[in-house]
Predict the 3D structure of the following.
Amino acid sequence: MPDFRYLDGEFHCESVPFRKIAEAVGTPCYVYSHARLVRQFRSFDAAFKDVPHITAYAIKANSNIAVLRLLAQEGAGADIVSGGELYRALQAGLMPQRIVFAGVGKTDEEIGYALHSDILMFNVESPAELLAIDRVAGELKTHARVALRINPDIDPKTHPYISTGLKKSKFGISAERAVDEFKLATTLKNIEIVGVHKHIGSQLMHVSPYVESLKKILDLVEQLKGIGVEIRYLNVGGGLGITYQDEIPPQPEDLAQAISPLLKDLKCVLIFEPGRSIVGNAGVLLIKVLYQQANPDKTFLIVDAAMNDLIRPSLYGAYHEIKPVQEAREKAKRKVLVDVVGPVCESGDFLAKDRMMPLGDPGDLLAVMSAGAYGFSMASNYNSRLRIPEVLVRDREIHVIRAREEYPDLIRGETIPAFLK
Ligand code: LLP
């Protein structure tokens, strides 16, 4: 069963018409397909079945605890970047022994929390962080397992904001300095070196940058052997792209095929950190047309979701396909050039620009596709807009996995000081 398709004239998620979801939950809302989530995870994980590995789902892509629970049940681990993500992971039932912690700015509190939770390892991004982890581990009378994140200086050929493996980026330790930093790590009492980590960028459309960067990392692993450092875990990061428009991204099997010849003699557990490729095309942002506005030069479709709900178009100029929920609209011959914009008070607030679309009427429902990754997880309350619900569809069932916020949620934690009372 296709996860998103027209059936009896209406766009469906699995066996549920989007119209029904709008009636039950209101718009805007995020809608995720259970079947698709499961299938994406399984197909990723199965591609590497011949090598010992952990598929550590990158929680930042979509961190709803129901999604995390589902993936935990499928055997996923987690890639986290904050104490908050660790909290979510543990609440959702992800096993600490399968959690890896990246990020350039881990605080002492976060390091302590992760040590207490006994996560698998820290992906350390700088020598200063290494010293901090050693110190906190000492204070807690424990030791920390670490991988050093290496910046291989490889161009992932993706959007500059989501490229992480170039020299000029803030992430990781440069390949030239790596051996020295590993040497430093061996001198630290509370540090146990267990791995090497790399992640070069997101929405990658080719496997060649993976292969190139992996070659560099394998050279390093050899050099480390020379100084007596045995690597047990090799983390190749995430980044596999998805189709937003008509791109043809590599599939997990393509990645497996491309890198397995390099890994033949390696006795390491591999770690993968896919985010977008698991959840991106499993989610849709369901929205409603509020108004049409035709200016002399431009027609606007004003909808009820905005950049605070889905920031990718505004932030990266990202393309998200928009499908009318009524099939008759989809089939309409007449299409017009429109900007699909939200109610936020910014010119940069748009979901689509100069898009040829059937012109919707107020009340029409639209599905913004490929919104499962970096959609809700990047949402904010800007303009004091309520964050929207998330819904998980499983065949005929609609499960609200996050409620729509209410006005009191907006001011929770805020206080008016006594002198103003
Ligand atoms: N591992 C690390 C260390 C990462 O920094 C990331 C993503 C991932 C794994 C997962 O990458 P993925 O498989 O999802 O490509 N907000 C941007 C994407 C930012 C990605 C940040 N790091 C977007 O909406 O396109």
Summary: The pocket of LLP is lined by residues 58, 60-61, 79, 102, 162, 164, 199, 202-203, 237-240, 273-277, 312, 316, 373-374 (CB under 6 Å).
